TrEMBL record:
<keyword id="KW-0575">Peroxidase</keyword>
<comment type="similarity">
    <text>Belongs to the peroxiredoxin family. AhpC/Prx1 subfamily.</text>
</comment>
<keyword id="KW-0676">Redox-active center</keyword>
<dbReference type="GO" id="GO:0045454">
    <property type="term" value="P:cell redox homeostasis"/>
</dbReference>
<feature type="domain" description="Thioredoxin">
    <location>
        <begin position="82"/>
        <end position="265"/>
    </location>
</feature>
<dbReference type="GO" id="GO:0005829">
    <property type="term" value="C:cytosol"/>
</dbReference>
<dbReference type="GO" id="GO:0033554">
    <property type="term" value="P:cellular response to stress"/>
</dbReference>
<keyword id="KW-0560">Oxidoreductase</keyword>
<dbReference type="InterPro" id="IPR050217">
    <property type="entry name" value="Peroxiredoxin"/>
</dbReference>
<dbReference type="InterPro" id="IPR036249">
    <property type="entry name" value="Thioredoxin-like_sf"/>
</dbReference>
<keyword id="KW-0049">Antioxidant</keyword>
<dbReference type="GO" id="GO:0042744">
    <property type="term" value="P:hydrogen peroxide catabolic process"/>
</dbReference>
<dbReference type="InterPro" id="IPR013766">
    <property type="entry name" value="Thioredoxin_domain"/>
</dbReference>
<dbReference type="Pfam" id="PF00578">
    <property type="entry name" value="AhpC-TSA"/>
</dbReference>
<dbReference type="InterPro" id="IPR019479">
    <property type="entry name" value="Peroxiredoxin_C"/>
</dbReference>
<dbReference type="GO" id="GO:0005783">
    <property type="term" value="C:endoplasmic reticulum"/>
</dbReference>
<dbReference type="GO" id="GO:0008379">
    <property type="term" value="F:thioredoxin peroxidase activity"/>
</dbReference>
């Protein structure tokens, strides 16, 4: 009897604790869930605030207020490591040079100026109406959306055909896209009359993992390729100029040459180049008295 009585007491006590837990647990769980949710929101708010403070040096959101105005359809760019007057982001990779695969890196050009430009995609025409691009999604849809790929060979050929003008001023040119070195080579081996490059005199660098284009702030996450970014890097590895074009419009070889010549002039002479400056034109002595010489002639 005594054992039975103890068992009943234990059972009764267990039931009481169960009833208490039933009463206590729901509010406790609700409190914990609300606390975690609030912490998540607070963390998200901190992230958004930090994101709003970020500035893209090579394109994208420039002012924090623009974040709220951007739609989901807008291109998504990566925060660029490329900053004017700072060392250019280091890169290395496989390039096609004179029809061969070679390892190439930024430091190979130390002591020279470098024009480093990105283009969206290689395009190879096999037969009328049939195109090949190194994409994981619908080719026709991407062509229709970007309207850009046909511009790429005109830029590469234009820079390649005038490479001696750059080399005469101690400058090299490298082109880069997210395609593989194999696609680069296939494009080079395609005749120009079929949309190919033919023999080309500048390296085509492969950025297959997109790291280089992300470091330079030109990679379009939603498209899987890059904007038309051009970067002038001086003989000390310092980034001096950034040009970003939207996809449908190519860049000017003449303007790129002019900019390189202008930066080299200021490096050598310490004077500054006014708007539209070309070699042989007047420059400005950058001090209050010296500048008057230029403005007296101008006016």
């Amino acid at each position: 009897m005594e054992a039975r009585s103890k068992l009943l007491d234990a059972t009764t006590q267990s039931r009481r604790w169960t009833q208490k837990l039933v009463l206590i647990l729901p509010p406790l769980l609700l409190f914990l869930l609300r606390t975690e949710a609030l912490q998540g929101l607070e963390s998200e708010d901190r992230f958004r605030t930090r994101e709003n403070e970020c500035h893209f040096y090579a394109g994208g959101q420039v002012y924090p207020g623009e974040v709220s105005r951007l739609s989901a359809a807008d291109h998504s760019l990566h925060l660029s490591k490329a900053k004017i007057s700072k060392p250019a982001p280091y890169w290395e990779g496989t390039a096609v040079i004179n029809g061969e695969f070679k390892e190439l890196k930024l430091t190979d050009y130390r002591g020279k100026y470098l024009v480093f430009f990105f283009y969206p995609l290689d395009l190879i025409l096999y037969s009328p109406g049939i195109f090949y691009m190194e994409l994981e999604y619908n080719v026709e849809e991407e062509l229709s959306r970007s309207r850009s790929t046909f511009v790429c060979p005109t830029e590469i050929i234009a820079f390649g055909d005038r490479i001696e003008e750059f080399r005469s001023i101690n400058t090299e040119v490298v082109a880069c896209s997210v395609d593989s070195q194999f696609t680069h080579l296939a494009w080079i081996n395609t005749p120009r009359r079929q949309g190919g490059l033919g023999p080309i005199r500048i390296p085509l660098l492969s950025d297959l993992n997109h790291q280089i284009s992300k470091d330079y702030g030109v990679y379009l996450e939603d498209s899987g390729h890059t904007l038309r970014g051009l970067f002038i890097i001086d003989d000390k590895g310092i980034l001096r100029q950034i040009t970003l074009n939207d996809l449908p419009v190519g860049r000017s070889v003449d303007e790129t040459l002019r900019l390189v010549q202008a930066f080299q002039y200021t490096d050598k002479h310490g004077e500054v180049c006014p708007a539209g400056w070309k070699p042989g034109s007047e420059t400005i002595i950058p001090d209050p008295a010296g500048k008057l010489k230029y403005f007296d002639k101008l006016n």
